[in-house]
Design goal:
By secondary structure, the protein is α/β, with parallel strands linked by helices. Helix content is 28%, strand content 33%. The protein has one domain: Vaccinia Virus protein VP39 (Rossmann fold), CATH 3.40.50. It is built from 5 helices and 9 strands; from the N terminus they run ββαβαβαββαβαββ. It has a 7-stranded mixed β-sheet, with helices on both faces. Helix 1 packs parallel to helix 2. The longest helix is centred in the middle third of the chain and has 14 residues. The termini are far apart.
């Protein structure tokens, strides 16, 4: 079985276009086989970005990092609507290629680059946002969430989403040793969290 957090250059390409509208903005996202949520926008990602935008609508001159960006849904929307400068990282090369195309397609101020978790990240950010790759395992997810502390500016915020059946409450309990964690939204079993360094 192919996973969206692995690379298989032999996987057949079947590009498709996914439209998405939010806050009177219209977007188009190119997707393909071998990437997360290839046929439609993932509900959790859509809910996460809606809650984030409800709390932050103007981030001009702010820096945002989208971890596990896939084909760029979260970062591109945040950049377009809030005017933030967004960097997007993923371990999946096909997703990153799509993300680069989607940045141009939607005319946003973003860059994207290959990084296994924060391996190639050099900056610090006011906001880090992620719909973490649950299927990659708890070790990877915890690394993304916990290590975000090293890449947040003072008073920065980590935003993430997890379903109650995939460990939302246990993850919150684990992170509360290191962050002040708030539930800022709930929908269809998904918990949207905001974490600030203690």
């Amino acid at each position: 079985m192919e996973h969206y957090f692995t690379n298989n250059p032999d996987l057949k390409s079947e590009i498709r276009e996914i439209p998405y509208t939010i806050n009177n903005y219209s977007f188009k996202f190119l997707s393909d086989n071998g990437v997360f949520s290839k046929n439609k926008i993932d509900y959790a990602s859509s809910f996460l970005v809606n809650v984030f935008l409800d709390n932050h609508n103007d981030l001009e001159e702010k820096k945002v990092l989208d971890v596990g960006c896939g084909y760029g849904f979260l970062g591109i929307i945040i950049s377009k609507i809030t005017k933030a400068y967004v960097e997007m990282i993923d371990v999946n090369k096909r997703a990153l290629h799509l993300c680069e195309r989607n940045i141009k397609l939607n005319n946003v101020n973003c860059i994207t680059y290959l990084s296994d978790c924060y391996e190639n990240v050099k900056n610090k950010y006011e906001y880090i946002i992620t719909n973490p790759p649950i299927r990659a395992g708890k070790k990877v997810v915890n690394s993304i969430l916990l290590d975000a502390r090293n890449y947040l500016e003072e008073n920065g915020e980590l935003w993430f989403i997890i379903h109650k059946d995939q460990g939302a409450k246990s993850t919150k309990n684990y992170l509360e040793k290191y962050y002040n964690v708030d539930v800022v939204g709930k929908s269809k079993g998904f918990y949207c969290f905001r974490a600030k360094i203690c």
